[in-house]
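Entry for the shared binder. Reason: the reviewer on the internal report wants the predicted structure included alongside the sequence.
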Amino acid sequence: MNAEHVSSLSLDLLHFDALSSTERARIEAHLAECERCRRDAEAARASREHCARQIVPRGFAPLTRRRGWLPWLAGAPVLAAAIVLLMLKLRPPDIAMKGAPTFSTYVRHDGQVSVLRDGGTVRAGDEIRFVAVSETLSYLLVCSVDGAGKASIYFPFAGTESGTIDLRNRVELPGSVILDDAPGPERVFALFSSKPITAADATAALHAISKDAASIRSTQRLPVAADAQVTLVFEKPQ
């Protein structure tokens, strides 16, 4: 965190006390030295307080039910006090900096940010965002297939092959995915490799498991040239 500014996602997770102790210490040290990030944190805090006073009592407009790729907004979290207390108990696992690559998924639902676990439930309009760490494999392709049989490339968004990531650093992949209303399971694969993987190869493999929900739920690996794979499935009820 010394050279980079604190992202809006990290500010959200800091507010929810949903960071590892190491990440929290790094961010707090950066905030102590960086005026710009302190202003961002204060703006996010003021926005949350305003929303709690003004927006929560009036209700929310429906979220657009489509799949898209939008910036993660620092001012979006809207929490009542009881929800905050619950979120304080939700911490993501510490991200290991050695060994196999790690891949974490966060979901924003009704203003709350939490870790999306394998087998978790989401809703149309929820936003998900990804964090990756790799020590030796510098290429990453993130893709998914949903209950309607649609294959998507999430990183690099709509790209033709794997993108590169910084080694040994916690990388917050740009943008967030707004989930559409396709019901059933959706499985996400993070494909780490030493050479690029084409989106066409990944998409073909995804289509092969898209014939039924059972295949999407049970498949743990794609037959592509990835050196390491991380996957999770989540459910969107009808």
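Summary line for the report: The chain has a mean pLDDT of 79.
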